[in-house]
Structures are given as structure tokens and as C-alpha cells.
Amino acid sequence: MKIKAIGGEFGLIERIKKKTNLYSEDSEEVIVGIGDDAAVLNYNKNSYVLFTTDMLVENDHFSLKYSIPEQIGMKAIEQNVSDIASMGGLPKFAVISLALPNNADVGFIDKLYYGINKKARKYKIDIVGGNITHSKEIIVNVAMLGFVEKKHLALRSGAKIGDFIFCSGNVGSSTTGLELLRNNKRGKSIKKHLEPKSRLGLAQKLVKIGVNSMIDVSDGVASEVKHICDESKAGAIIYSDKVPISRNTIIDAKKIKKNPIDLALYGGEDFELVFTASKNKSKQLKKYDVSVIGEIVDKKYGVKLIRNNKKQNIESGFDHFNRIRV
Amino acid sequence: MKIKAIGGEFGLIERIKKKTNLYSEDSEEVIVGIGDDAAVLNYNKNSYVLFTTDMLVENDHFSLKYSIPEQIGMKAIEQNVSDIASMGGLPKFAVISLALPNNADVGFIDKLYYGINKKARKYKIDIVGGNITHSKEIIVNVAMLGFVEKKHLALRSGAKIGDFIFCSGNVGSSTTGLELLRNNKRGKSIKKHLEPKSRLGLAQKLVKIGVNSMIDVSDGVASEVKHICDESKAGAIIYSDKVPISRNTIIDAKKIKKNPIDLALYGGEDFELVFTASKNKSKQLKKYDVSVIGEIVDKKYGVKLIRNNKKQNIESGFDHFNRIRV
Predict the structure, then answer these.
(1) Domain containing B219 — which CATH number?
(2) Which of A38, A96, A273, B104 could form a disulfide with A52 if both were Cys (CB 3.0 to 4.6 A apart)?
């Protein structure tokens, strides 16, 4: 049986989650195991430890045709910081596994590490270890530890019926940038693909105001709302015309003859935040760079999209196993 | 400049260590950063957190020609447990990054996870997260957290002049097994290559008796002694005829026309322990499955091997960048 037959990447994760007997359910030390952006582990009276890992694979997450090594290193850190940020935490320590082809150039590795260090310094992360090995394609795996105050922990599972659904910044630009590159076109979205930035600072402000659930946008807004609903046992209505899309993304989407809303809903790796909060917080929250894009409803209504005044089911999100390699 | 020109894998690690400005030197939270089997981080009054990561790459660390998926999963956990064990700690949590070819079979992944879970249960490790992505070759990266009582922490850097150098179990069997497989021969060493076992239980006993330094054998005994000496600013004499080699390894080495001592000194992935302790501990230590293989001496004498009554310099250890792919 092939991975596609069980629903691709997401089906596979569900299968592993169900099949594995991980001793986590009864553990007092594991607050959240598989199924959120990072694992949540008991630490001390006031704080939890967050533990996450993410891998960048050449020709899947990046291509040397498009990215300089510094950008690959930067992205490897940003995508893990984004996972810690969306839980309400601050990153603190990381270890790095690097696999490189035999003919890899030392200059390339120096530049990759320059990018890693640049971001590690920015976020005050100590790179405390790692290993280097040999492969056909370049692989950069980062595992990261962070800390979150218990009162600020934001999970996927906390959404409540009646919550507004918010989205930070603008979305769809990373995928638009990738499509421009693939089609040999130019545009401002390209930088958003090559140098995505997590929203750590914003996430810290949001959890202080109080959000009920949060996730980072790594597989498209629609997919992220679906993850929140799955974990919160809720439904949602997303208003597609409310999804925040930048002027540059609209201009660039035209060049590749794509609808920018599709790119925002189903395109990956924007590293923006999707979160839900009770309506009475919205005045406070709207001071920040966030938009209301929908509402949490009862589970029986499912996760629906209002588009051109019609109600649609959402499609599944960005799936690495259905992705055309870059 | 190619990786070989700066001394392969070990030269590369040194280069990264020097080039990176990791803010660890002054940190009160980072007890040991890059340069040991695991990073050591402050935790509470009595304990440290250990943080490590290791990657298995298809056709480098394993081949589907030789390994069944269950064995790959088992090895991915064992190699990280071995890093925690050699610091004197107990493993506790792990996250897993998996990269798979598009045509990967779901049955394969089930079996891989069966192996992962088998070992996770054995060592009481909670698998708390991970991610799955797409690649040309199969990649399994594990990042692991463990805990060690402060008084039991064993570092590479603690060896003292006059210490005996010990080696646990028997060494050279994993490499011998690999060579048998490559040469289409049979022998008992093959299982040692396909299903290596860390020495967590033994390591726990050793640190309670009191060792001055410890490392696990992932790149050959000679290389591990050299790592201890580098970090401890010491020299060493290794008696090659004292290096423990099993009868099976001697028999199997003949089949591939190799000297078993070479395989033990320079072959990787036995996951045994090399450690040093003051001579007055040797009576207590010898109750366990360990052998004295040499002595720590002043740095000015370097790291030497006594072989056939002649003093030799040791060669460099197992290097993934000089390795012929399996």
C-alpha cells in the first residue's frame, strides 16, 4: 500500500499516532505528545518544556537552483522557532543533524552555518550539538527546546465554539514565490519563500492577551484551521474573502495565472499564525497585525469555506507526498 | 575546498565548532555544548538535562539489501540511547523526523515504527513528536532528551593522568558484520551490525562506581580514546592486544581476510563504552563486563598504540566521508 492510499502525509501521521503505543497517555510528564506543533513536557511549577523537530530536504523544501546556503540555514532555524512560537513559548536550545553529499564544498557548509548562527543569535538560541553524515541530497534537521509559562501555553486543542478565527500578517506569499521560481518569473513573493520569518514576537503578545488555540501556517490556512478543529473537536467557517493576502502576492499570482486565495488556503510555509480567541478579546487583538477570517462552530457543521457566497468543503492542505519536487 | 581537504567529518566538526559563535561559553545554562556525546544543560538542583541527536541515512548507515525495516527503527533509537548512556544518564523523551521516497510502502513504515516502539518501550522512552517528509533516500533522525544526576555525569573531558582506559564488552563486531554482508559471506557478526545494542544498564553501574571520563564506541576504539584525550588534554597508550574481541569476530574477520584488531580499533558503531577511571577503582570495575586496554598519560606523549611490541601513532577513526557506501 502506498502513502497516497492512506491520505498522504496527514494520513500517515494519524496512522503512526494510532499504531504507536507510546506510554504518553498516562504520563504525568507528557502534557501533549504527538499532535501539536511541539511536545509539551512538565518542567517546573511555572513552566513547561517544548520539544520539536523539523527537517529540510534538498529538492523538496529547497533547491540549490533558488536558495543560497545562508537562506537554507536561516529557514532550518525559522521553521523550528515557528513551532515553538505557536505554542506560546520562547526557543532556547537546538541540536543540528546535517547530511551532505560526498562532494560537498566546505564553503557551502560555512555559509549554511552562517545562516544558522545568524538566526540563532537573533532568537538567543544556543546551538549545543549535532552530527554530520553523508547522503545523496542535502538534509538539515533541527531539534529545538523551548520554554513556555504554563499560563501562556497555546494548543491546537483549545478552540471554543463562538471563538473568532484569526490569521496574522499575510498568507500565500511563500507558495506564490515558489511558483514564480518554478516558472522562471520574478516578483517580491520570492523573498517570502526563500527567507520566511516566524512570528515569535507577535505570538508572545497574543498569548499574553489570551488565545484559546494557536498553530503556525506550514501547510496552508485551510489545513491549519482543520488541524485546530480536529484537535478541539469543533467545526469552523472560514470566510475566504477575509483571508489576508498582500498586494504583492496578488500581483505575483497573476503572473503564474493562479488564484491568490487558493495559494493562501492551500500553500505551505508562510510561518504566520492561525489562532482562535473569544470575541471579547478581538478589540485588544486587532491592535496587532492580525485579521479575523472566520468563526469556530459546533463539530456537526464540519469545517467549511464560504467562497463567492457558496459554502464549500475545504480541500486537504499542502502535502509533501503530493508535491511536485522543486 | 572539499571536506576531505580539512580532514573529513572530524575536521568539519572542529571547523564548525570554531566558526560558530554560539553564546554557550558564558552561559550558566549550558554545562557542555558541542564536543561530547550529548549536550549537558542545567535542569534542577540535582540533575542535568542531556540533549542529543543522530541521523540514519539509507545506503550510508543501513541498506535495504541487508536490514529489515524493524532493525532500522531499532538502530535509530539505540544509537541515541548510547549517547545518553555514555554521559551517565537515562533517556526519557524523543522526537523523530522521517524522510521517505514517494513510493514508500505503508507496510515498511509500520515495521520501521514497530522497531522504534520496541526499543522505546524497552528503555521507557516517550516518543512525543516528529514530522514526515519526502526525500530520495530513507532518512531517520532521532533527537533525544535524557536526565543525569549531577554526581553521575560522565564527560569526555574528565580523564586524568594515570587513569586506566577500559572498554566494555567486545568491539569490532559491527564492522566485521558489515564487511561480511558486503562480501556476501555469513557469520554471527552480522547480527551485531544489524542490531547493535547500547550499554545503558552497564553505564549506570559504572557511573555509580565512579568513572573519570566516558564515550560510546561509534567510530572505533582508537578514535574514541583520541576524543577523550583531545577533550581531557591528555595522552594515552593503548595496548592493542588488550582490546576485547570476541571469538566470533576473529572467525568472521578471517573470512574477509581482515585483521580483527584493525576492525576493533577503526571500525564504527559497536555502541560499547570506552571510559577511564583511577586505578584504585579497577577491582570494583572488573566485576563487570569490561577490560583494561590502556592508560592515560601526559599530553606530551600523544596518543600511541603498542602493537607487536612497537609504538605506533593511531590512525583516524571511522569517517563517513571516507566510507564506501553500503
Answers:
(1) 3.90.650.10
(2) A38
Helices B69-85 + B200-209 axis angle, to 10? 10
119-158 in chain A: CB under 8 A from chain B:
120-121, 124, 126-137, 139, 141, 143, 145
- Burial grade of B183 (CB within 10 A; 0-12, 13-18, 19 or more): exposed
Among A3, A129, A141, the residue with its CB nearest the CB of B33 is A129
Amino acid A26: pLDDT? 65
Task: Answer whether B321 touches A (CB < 8 Å).
Answer: yes
Q: Average of pLDDT values for B93-107? A: 92
Which chain B residues are Cβ-neighbours of A320 within 8 angstroms? 132-134
pLDDT confidence of A326, banded at 50, 70, 90? Answer: very low
Q: Look at residues A118, A151, A184 and tell me which one is the last residue of a structural domain.
A: A151
Q: Work out the pLDDT band at B209, boundaries 50, 70, 90.
A: very high
Average pLDDT, chain A: 92
C-alpha cell at A78: 525559522
Containing structural domain, residue B173 = 155-313
Mean pLDDT of B108-115: 94
pLDDT in tens, A147-194: 999 999 999 999 999 999 999 999 999 999 999 999 999 999 999 999
Contacts 24+ apart (CB under 8 A), B254-258: B255/B180, B255/B183, B255/B185, B255/B187, B256/B176, B256/B179, B256/B180, B256/B183, B256/B185, B258/B176, B258/B179
Do B65 and B129 have their domain in common? Answer: yes
Helix (H, G, I), strand (E, B) or coil at A146: strand
Q: Which of A16, A20, A70, A137 to mutate to test the interface with B (most CBs of B within 10 A)?
A: A16
